[in-house]
């Protein structure tokens, strides 16, 4: 997607710029923060889980073709860029509501994750990402301008695919779990020990 194809609202949206200590140092437009190698900015991500038929399931989403980064690709439940005058918790509850129609504030804060990854097309992610996690088994109403669809997938099958490339036996998951179907930050995130350890600790204690 080129700059000329972006909506005025998207071009006007601003995000919080930070230093390596996650201290606020200013703001930039959403586009400026993601161009070339990206400007370091503050973000939030959430992972929602449920237990169904004796299995642990993880909610993932397929991003809209209108997205500047990772259009049409699958990613974690929701990601969001923190805007000026809001904190990470407000950001992720807002994005849950906007993207998936989920009203949920009882989320657990986990670790912060610092990463940078090329997303193609002259754009990149360069973030300090505050991760949240929670349990959810209610309705999901995606905004189609943000999300094509959302799916519950088996957590262990998801990890096996992301970490080892193992294709699941479930025919529906096979359609999703294919090379190049996931946003570029997913493999980084789910191979990061501090992220995995904090998620597993939350799951075991819940």
Give a verbal description of the structure.
The chain has 206 residues and is α+β, with helices and mostly antiparallel strands. It has a single domain, classed as Alpha-Beta Complex (Nucleoside Triphosphate Pyrophosphohydrolase), CATH 3.90.79.10. Helix content is 28%, strand content 35%. The protein is built from 7 helices and 9 strands; from the N terminus they run H-E-E-H-E-E-E-E-H-E-E-E-H-H-H-H. Strands 3, 4, 5, 6, 7, 8 and 9 form a 7-stranded mixed beta sheet that branches. A two-stranded antiparallel sheet has the order 1-2. Strand 7 and strand 8 form a beta hairpin. The longest helix has 13 residues. It is globular and about 45 Å long. The chain starts with 7 loop residues before the first helix and ends with a helix. The mean pLDDT is 94.
List keywords for this structure.
single chain; 206 residues; alpha+beta; Nucleoside Triphosphate Pyrophosphohydrolase; 7-stranded mixed beta sheet; two-stranded antiparallel sheet; 9 strands; globular
SS content category: alpha+beta
Strand content: 25-35%
Order of helices and strands: HEEHEEEEHEEEHHHH
Can you count the helices? 7
Distance between the termini: 41 Å
**Major sheet summary line:** 7 strands, mixed
Task: Please give the share of residues in helix.
Answer: 25-40%
Task: Provide the residue-averaged pLDDT.
Answer: 94
**What's the CATH superfamily, by name?**
Nucleoside Triphosphate Pyrophosphohydrolase
By CATH, the architecture is named Alpha-Beta Complex
Give the uncertain stretches in residue-range form. none
Number of domains: 1
């Amino acid at each position: 997607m080129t700059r000329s194809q972006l909506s005025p609202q998207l071009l006007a949206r601003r995000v919080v710029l930070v230093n390596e200590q996650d201290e606020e140092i200013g703001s930039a437009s959403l586009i400026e923060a993601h161009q070339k190698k990206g400007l370091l900015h503050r973000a939030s991500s959430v992972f929602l889980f449920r237990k169904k038929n004796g299995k642990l399931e993880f909610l993932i989403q397929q991003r809209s073709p209108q997205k500047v980064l990772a259009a049409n690709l699958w990613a974690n439940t929701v990601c969001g860029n923190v805007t000026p005058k809001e904190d990470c918790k407000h950001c992720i509850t807002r994005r849950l509501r906007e993207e998936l129609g989920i009203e949920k504030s009882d989320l657990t804060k986990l670790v912060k994750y610092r990463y940078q990854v090329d997303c193609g097309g002259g754009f990149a992610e360069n973030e300090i990402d505050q991760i949240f996690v929670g349990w959810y088994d209610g309705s999901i109403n995606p905004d189609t301008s943000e999300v094509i669809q959302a799916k519950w997938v088996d957590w262990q099958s998801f990890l096996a695919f992301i970490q080892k490339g193992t294709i699941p036996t479930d025919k529906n998951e096979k359609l999703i779990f294919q090379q190049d179907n996931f946003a570029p930050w997913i493999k980084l995130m789910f191979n990061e020990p501090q992220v995995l350890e904090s998620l597993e600790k939350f799951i075991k204690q819940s």
